[in-house]
DNA sequence: CGCCCCGTTGAAGATGATCAAATCTTGTGG
DNA sequence: CCACAAGATTTGATCATCTTCAACGGGGCG
């Protein structure tokens, strides 16, 4: 795990004393927006989504997270979003109080957390650009390229671990528009869709060009 | 300034050795997206906007910043966004290398920076909800309430330091829609507009209700 | 005084949403 | 193994919100 990389054996032993592990099924709510923010989590295996809701049920997914990512940091007493597993997930759980004590012993951990949070913030700003200014086609193209890179860009084919509904709520669209847009990209030969949950990138350059609004 | 609060006299003297100050005019670009991220800035006075551009000129403002806020943190070598003054601004500039050395001496500073970044991230997630799922009316209502709170909610009247164009690029709308929506809120008696750059909140509860999608 | 920029207002148009239905997938039980 | 039910995805038709295009008004500054 990235979070504990670079620790000595002794430091690592200390590190392990503050963490708990958990394996959870798909579709489980790990915590809800507003719950007391007692833990910080890192993902060992699986995929997690974070989202916020409006009172009438409208939902915005703010991030899809994968192994190595962390979540659950909060300035105030409560979490700012809900976290839910999308697949079977293995988590490390760090109780907030213990973690803060550990920071004093291992300042490197705090630096890593700051770096990870800064990266999350940059991703959030990129997503604001997408939500505020990109067309449906640009949003879907961006989503596919970013996800492909995140899941390891060895092969052009990759699995979508999330439903159309999740994609729609991440991109600020409806499921119908996501479906139509994917069909359109397929029709134009930019991607292939072996089945509903797999995408094959066929013309990466053109896809990138669309994603950047060119 | 919040960043140096709680330091002893001696620590503060050390703190002052790493920072430079700058006064700048309105409309000045402090740095551009992609520039080498050499400095971290905090705002002493004035207002700053951060934004990202698409190649065809479409712009998304990701934040309006005010005294006490910081900006310029970056994981990679380059800034992730452009920063521009909206008013006359007084800044503190922290060279990145010196600041990192200072962190080892004053771990409290790093904790504060982590807290501030976490808060920025929460604000970004709230903005994603706005951009992805709120209507124009809800966006403008949210914007007014949040700005009013940020600028000090003593009096219901406050000045908008930014143009309609900036508001539009922050809310993912056009200037025409922003203008029409403000007119609509005024017509419905929720706000008053003494002039184009001043807003008076008249029915906060109703405005909050709209902002939350209720 | 007059120009220019900013903001407002109006009319027409387009993108994406909504409503509706068909198709495909998956899991269950006979 | 097959039939069936439930849910997810795709496709189609219509609709609404917001954008685009256009024109007008007003305040500030030369």
Automatic annotation (TrEMBL), chains A, B:
It holds the Pfam family cNMP_binding. One of its GO terms (molecular function) is DNA binding. Residues 3-72 form the Cyclic nucleotide-binding domain. Residues 134-205 form the HTH crp-type domain. It comes from the Bacteria. One of its GO terms (cellular component) is cytosol. The keyword Transcription regulation applies. SMART domains: cNMP, HTH_CRP. The keyword Aminoacyl-tRNA synthetase does not apply. Keywords: DNA-binding, Transcription, Transcription regulation. InterPro entries: cNMP-bd_dom, cNMP-bd_dom_sf, Env_Response_Regulators, HTH_CRP, RmlC-like_jellyroll, Tscrpt_reg_HTH_Crp-type_CS, WH-like_DNA-bd_sf, WH_DNA-bd_sf. Transmembrane segments: none annotated. This is Crp/Fnr family transcriptional regulator. It comes from Telmatospirillum siberiense. The lineage of its organism: Bacteria, Pseudomonadati, Pseudomonadota, Alphaproteobacteria, Rhodospirillales.
């Amino acid at each position: 795990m990235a979070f504990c990389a670079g620790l000595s054996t002794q430091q690592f032993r200390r590190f392990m004393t503050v963490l708990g592990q958990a394996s959870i099924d798909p579709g489980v709510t790990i915590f809800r927006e507003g719950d007391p923010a007692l833990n910080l989590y890192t993902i060992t295996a699986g995929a997690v989504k974070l989202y916020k809701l409006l009172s009438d049920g409208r939902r915005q997914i703010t991030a899809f997270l994968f192994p190595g990512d962390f979540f659950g940091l909060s300035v105030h007493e409560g979490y700012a979003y809900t976290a839910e597993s999308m697949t079977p997930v293995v988590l490390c759980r760090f109780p907030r109080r213990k973690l803060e004590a550990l920071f004093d012993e291992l300042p490197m951990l705090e630096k890593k957390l700051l770096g990870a949070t800064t990266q999350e913030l940059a991703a959030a700003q990129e997503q604001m650009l997408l939500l505020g200014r990109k067309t449906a086609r640009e949003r879907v193209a961006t989503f596919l390229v970013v996800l492909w890179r995140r899941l390891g860009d060895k092969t052009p084919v990759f699995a979508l671990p999330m439903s159309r509904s999740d994609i729609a709520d991440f991109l600020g669209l409806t499921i119908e528009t996501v479906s139509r847009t994917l069909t359109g990209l397929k029709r134009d030969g930019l991607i292939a869709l072996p089945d509903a949950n797999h995408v094959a990138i066929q013309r990466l350059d053109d896809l990138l060009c669309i994603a950047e609004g060119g």
